[in-house]
Amino acid sequence: MSETGFLLFQRILSAVQICLYAVFLAVFFLPFFPGKRKGKMAAAFLIFALVYFIKAMTLTPVSSWLCMILILVLLIVFSGYFGMDRKFTLFLGVLYFSVRNLCILSMQSINFFTSRQIVREGDEVEIIFRNAVLNCVLVEVIQICLFSLLLYIVYRQLRKCERELHAKELCFLLLSPVTGIFFVNIIFQILIIVTEDIVLNLYDQYPVLAGAVPVTALLFYAGILVTISSYRQMIGLQEEKKKYFVEEQQVRAIQERMQQVDQFYTGIRQMKHEMKNHLTNIQGLLRTGNYEEMEQYITKIDESMGVLELDIKTGNAVTDVIINDKCKAARGQGVRFHCDFCYPDSAGYDAYDIGIILHNLLENAKEACDKMQSGERYISISGRQKNKFFFIKVLNSFEGEIVLDEESGLPRSMKSGETALHGIGLSNVRREVLKYMGDMDIRVKKTEFQVTVMLQEKCGGDRL
């Protein structure tokens, strides 16, 4: 192979490298794109490819640092189009370049050894160029395989992370990859030094560095994985804290509502004691012939008793309160509400556990109905005991699309403009179900959402 052919090969290899790394960037971002992804993937590919092709074609040498910064800026600018948080977009971009640079630096050591074995074997110029081509192809194939593996491992660590980052979280996550990028840049600055007609290779002078540098790069990569893993654990702890906080708030709300109901029942008992006085007053009005005032008096008594009456009776005070409250709220919004729920006749169930399940299921159903713009809105709940199992089923109408999370199998929350506590209702239900070694089944039938919960009776429980 001639020198001209070798230079042409280098240009072609450079173009192939740019395209391959642009594809890797687009594929790395792809799982985090919401909605339609083809256009977003193409945009990420073009951002990387255009910047490096412009660098390759320009007559003025452009620093790789400048290219990296420009690509990161463009990714952040297009984060709105991608549907991603800007901080998370920056984090993904820095991760990509850090892993890429660490991989390229590690391959310099392999290139150092393979070039000595392959390139320097030939005596003729054509053979040397041919061997150089073979060495370049070999190193590039190994580099692509290694890079794809390392990037995939990072993706596996990232897929459970939140999509929105706070400034402190971003700084924590960027520490290791940014340090790795600086390390790679420093090594490349001193790896090959050209002074007049002399070319000095750092590995030729200090062969031990050919092994030490890849090990250091691997440690930086391990640091990146440990940082992401620590962040994931922190997220998990925060999520658990939120779930327990929500559950505690729900139990507290149920207890407060129970106190109100107790007061209502106390009022009913008091009214029974006072009924003789009421009858005496009515008889007095009747004897005096004051029928109009007597009618008003009876109406007030009826209204007072009506406020204290629960429409739905389930056999338990806790579930009575929850279902009646949700029923009134739903019917107040024009939602048809049907209930066929009977509390299990067993001491193996805790009323507050079942109350949390009912509260979350009915609240989710009500919110789904509230968002409907057309069609019949309805909620149906049933609860039946079969031997040692208790089944709860909630059906509700909905509009739109249900997106199931790949990991949990639960629908992703599509709510916006709410606090960070939203979207964990069904996960709370699942946790309560696991207390009873039960199961939860979610099914979507066209415009109907169905959740079925199976609870297994505990032994030695105390019924509320």
Which key phrases capture this entry?
13 helices; alpha+beta; 464 residues; elongated
Radius of gyration: 35 Å
Strand arrangement within the widest β-sheet reads: 3-4-5-7-6
Termini separation comes to 89 Å
What would the principal axes of the Cα set say about the shape? elongated
Average pLDDT taken over every residue: 80
Q: Main sheet, how many strands, which sense, barrel?
A: 5 strands, mixed
Structural class: alpha+beta
Order of helices and strands: HHHHHHHEEHHHHEHEEHEE
SS elements, strand count: 7
Indicate the percent of residues in helices. Answer: 55-70%
Percentage of residues in DSSP E strands: 5-15%
Number of H/I helices: 13
Low-confidence stretches: 414-423
How would you summarize what this structure contains?
Helices cover 66% and strands 10% of the residues. By secondary structure, the protein is an alpha+beta fold.
